[in-house]
Amino acid sequence: MEAFRADGHLTNEMLMVLVQSPELLPEELTRLETAEHLAFCDDCLHRYMELLEGGPLLVPARSCEKTLWSHIRIRAIRNAVSRYATAAAAVALALTMLWGSPRMDFTPSLPLPAEERTSVSRQLTGLTGELNDSLRGAVGGISDFLNGFRPVS
Q1: Which among 26, 28, 87, 104 counts the fewest CB atoms within 10 Å?
Q2: H, E, C per residue of 32-89
Q3: How far apart are CA 144 and CA 149, in angstroms?
Q4: H or E segment at 16?
Q5: Which residues are 4's β-sheet partners?
Q6: Rounded to whole angstroms, how far apart are CA atoms 143 and 141?
Q7: Is the pLDDT of residue 39 over 80?
Q8: For the whole prediction, is pTM greater than 0.90?
Q9: Tens digit of pLDDT for each residue in 56-67?
């Protein structure tokens, strides 16, 4: 079977073999030459596609519409959350620091007597404990808010 005509294009017989049963091509070299020619010759590719138009269309075993829409919805929620997550975290930290910590007094005061002074480590322990409680509450609130966006199974 001749693969190419004298003008260098694929023969009609070769195109019919490609459409009906490509495994009947005689040699691997012929398959490669045919594939390469179709990749570069628009005329032969057009003739090949016209022959394919009359063939049966493949129908998928199952529809992907439901899974596709759920993936699109999940991706949209992730995009929305990721865009505003940094800003929300910054606001939550600022509000935690503003409302969750004791009021700082920056005015100079008289030194306390020695018996009323607390050690620096006790002051830092108390401050970090309060900050930890405030952050835990803020992160818990954000987590509860984001749990509302989980997809329904």
Answers
A1: 104
A2: HHHHHHHHHCHHHHHHHHHHHHCCCCCCCCCCCHHHHHHHHHHHHHHHHHHHHHHHHH
A3: 10
A4: helix 12-20
A5: 10
A6: 5
A7: yes
A8: no
A9: 777 777 877 778
